[in-house]
UniProtKB/TrEMBL annotation:
First-tier enzyme category under EC: oxidoreductase
Enzyme Commission code: 1.3.5.1
The family this protein is said to belong to: Belongs to the FAD-dependent oxidoreductase 2 family. FRD/SDH subfamily.
Annotated InterPro entries: FAD-dep_OxRdtase_2_FAD-bd (IPR003953), FAD/NAD-bd_sf (IPR036188), FRD_SDH_FAD_BS (IPR003952), Fum_R/Succ_DH_flav-like_C_sf (IPR037099), Fum_Rdtase/Succ_DH_flav-like_C (IPR015939), Fum_red_fp (IPR005884), SdhA/FrdA/AprA (IPR030664), Succ_DH/fumarate_Rdtase_cat_sf (IPR027477)
Pfam family, one: FAD_binding_2
Protein known as: Fumarate reductase flavoprotein subunit
Cofactor(s) the protein needs: FAD
Domain (FAD-dependent oxidoreductase 2 FAD-binding) ranges: 6-394
Length: 579
């Protein structure tokens, strides 16, 4: 074994760092390795803008937050998990305050909250529009207090080591040297984030390639609810950069090419006059993204080289409000679109934003593989069901990062050391990486071309609307892409920061994730939340009030099973906000 720790965490974003602190606090004798393919502060959490939801105002209640989450998720959320989540979210945000997070304040000193899509009460805490930056910084600084937390910055995990029915660590490449090392552990927590890069237009950073979803699948742990992919209605057309929902929370309006607030023509599940949500623009993300598709069909959008767009209008808010509440939005528009939202309309289109599905875990982050845990966007607990409400993800990674850290610490305290399988698996992985990828010279396919084909296929067949035919075709094409992937050869055979190697590994992870999304979407013959089948337009609680669990057999074929949804207090009802 090249390195070893009691607990190894894959991912240095919000979930990973929160889990690391929890392990250190639970049992200070445990050693913790935090492995991240980028420097932790570059993790995607840093780019979260809008805020984090937790009940704080006297007119709000935990039940209200739970109900909004469950109905927003179209009743696919496990309600025991949601109840734990809403109860612990305020404690986590206060804890962050004590660790130094500068939450924005009301003039009288109270924590400020803003409205957010689908939340019927104001409960979204924020730090201007740089919430993720401050949250991640706070967690990062706090981890520095613990000597037992050892960081592996810019190390890329390629495989989980599994033997005797449990996990024993990971194999990772140190990107600076190209050294391939085994890092042993009694427990491993996957905190490696989402997989938006499976699609061509996404708010997600380049590094969000679903690596740990594929690692879990390959190790025999199932993924849950992979067909539920969230589109955010307001991304910049070319880059996919997010214009935060906070812009609409502050009063921004969506207009079509005729200058018309087109959302008034659609059923957003929000009764007029949107008393608490303030405006139709704060309807749920899935419904807003679907309305965009209908505007395209009606010819009421504006064509650009990057596809059709509508516009977000902030001009009436004025310079002072935009500077005070949305400074980052203004900066992004100026830098990336050469426009100023104080004077100009912002072109926007729906872009992939968040993965509701992920590694199947219980309420403490435990997967079905002994010793393996998961938390954050990579995991599916599930509190997000068929559609996540904006600002629930940051508190989710705090609540379940902590829970997974505590559970992994308890497990590691009693677990034995790594078994004999470890060395052999590490050698096998080293051989695979060097022989099949790094030093391979015969191959005709290019990673970038295959990636583009996969992304376009996913947008066309597993996007905002899907049909059985297009999904079945996509499943076949993905199998072909997997075959063609075997025929790739890299142009760069050096070991130091070989980005071609990591891009190839990421593509192979993404192909697994794409196959899982398509397989689950094909079998779910209903429409619910972010999964809209034009051939099955209604929700079907008889057959599908259930989570899909997808397994990958060693031969590479997929199997889907269903698991009942946990209902505690809110029986399935019509999806209406603002009651
Ligand atoms: C632009 C944007 C804005 C958002 N705004 C909000 C918001 O306002 N409110 C809200 O609640 N949510 C928001 N979200 C969602 C939320 O930010 C994310 O879901 C959440 O931050 C994910 O955190 P994480 O810790 O799970 O993963 P990340 O922060 O994505 O961290 C993943 C970590 O895993 C590591 N990793 C991945 N693969 C490997 C590998 N193979 N080897 C080693 N390390 C690996 C990475 O280096 C990284 O450290 C936003 C998302 C985006 C994209």
């Amino acid at each position: 074994m090249d390195h070893s720790h009691d607990v190894v965490i894959v991912g240095g974003g919000g979930a990973g760092l929160r889990a690391a602190i929890a392990v250190a606090e639970t049992d200070p004798r445990l050693s913790v390795g935090v492995i991240s393919k980028v420097y932790p502060m570059r993790s995607h959490t840093v780019s979260a803008e809008g805020g984090a939801a937790a009940v704080i105002r006297p007119d709000d209640s935990l039940d209200d937050h739970a109900y909004d989450t469950v109905s927003g998720g179209d009743w696919l959320c496990d309600q025991d998990a949601v109840e734990a989540f809403v109860a612990e979210a305020p404690q986590e945000l206060f804890r962050l305050e004590h660790w130094g997070c500068p939450w924005s304040r009301e003039p009288d000193g109270r924590i400020a909250v803003r409205p957010f899509g689908g939340m019927k009460k104001m409960r979204t805490w924020f730090a201007a529009d740089k919430t993720g930056f401050h949250l991640l910084h706070t967690l990062f600084q706090t981890t520095l207090k613990y000597e037992q937390v050892v960081r592996y910055d810019e190390w890329f995990v390629t495989r989980l080591i599994v033997g005797d029915g449990r996990v024993h660590g990971v194999v990772a490449i140190e990107l600076r040297s190209g050294r391939i090392a085994a890092i042993g552990a009694k427990a491993v927590i996957l905190c490696a984030g989402g997989c938006g890069r499976v699609y061509p237009f996404t708010t997600n950073a380049n590094i969000k390639t679903g690596d740990a979803m594929a690692l879990a699948l390959r190790a025999g742990a199932p993924l849950k609810d992979m067909e539920f992919v969230q589109y955010h209605p307001t991304g910049l057309p070319f880059t996919g950069i997010l214009i935060t929902e906070a812009a609409r929370a502050e009063g921004g309006r969506l207009i079509n090419k005729d200058g018309y607030r087109y959302l008034q023509d659609y059923d957003l599940g929000v009764p007029e006059p949107w008393p608490v949500l303030r405006s139709m623009e704060l309807g749920p993300r899935d419904r807003l993204s679907q309305a965009f598709v209908h505007e395209v069909e009606k010819g009421r959008t504006t064509d650009t080289p990057y596809g059709p767009v509508v516009h977000l209008d902030l001009r009436h808010l004025g310079r002072t409000t935009i500077n005070a509440r949305l400074p980052f939005v203004r900066e992004l528009c100026r830098e990336y679109e050469r426009i100023d939202p104080v004077e100009d309309l912002i072109p926007v289109r729906p872009v992939v934003h968040y993965m509701m599905g992920g590694v199947h875990t219980d309420i403490d982050g435990a997967t079905s593989l002994e010793g393996l845990y998961a938390a954050g966007e990579v995991a599916c607990v599930s509190i997000n069901g068929a559609n996540r409400l904006g600002s629930n993800s940051l508190p989710e990674l705090l609540v379940f990062g902590r829970r997974a850290g505590q559970a992994a610490a308890a497990y590691a305290s009693g677990a034995g050391g790594p078994g004999p399988a470890v060395r052999a698996q590490a050698d096998d992985e080293r051989h695979r990486l060097e022989h099949d990828l790094l030093f391979k010279t015969d191959g005709h396919e290019h990673v970038s071309a295959l990636r583009q084909e996969m992304q376009d296929l996913m947008e066309d067949s597993a996007g905002i609307y899907r049909t059985g035919d297009s999904l079945a075709k996509a499943a076949g094409t993905l199998r072909e892409l997997r075959e063609r992937f075997r025929d790739t050869a890299l142009g760069d055979h050096s070991r130091t920061f070989n980005t071609q190697l990591t891009a190839a590994l990421e593509l192979s992870f993404m192909l697994d994730v794409a196959e899982a999304i398509v397989a689950c979407a094909l079998l779910r013959e209903e429409s619910r939340g972010a999964h809209q089948r034009t051939d099955f337009p209604a929700r079907d609680d008889q057959r599908f009030l259930a989570h899909s669990l997808i397994y990958r057999d060693p031969g590479g074929s997929y199997r889907v099973e269903y698991l009942p949804v946990t209902i505690t207090r809110w029986p399935p009802g019509e999806r209406v906000y603002g009651r």
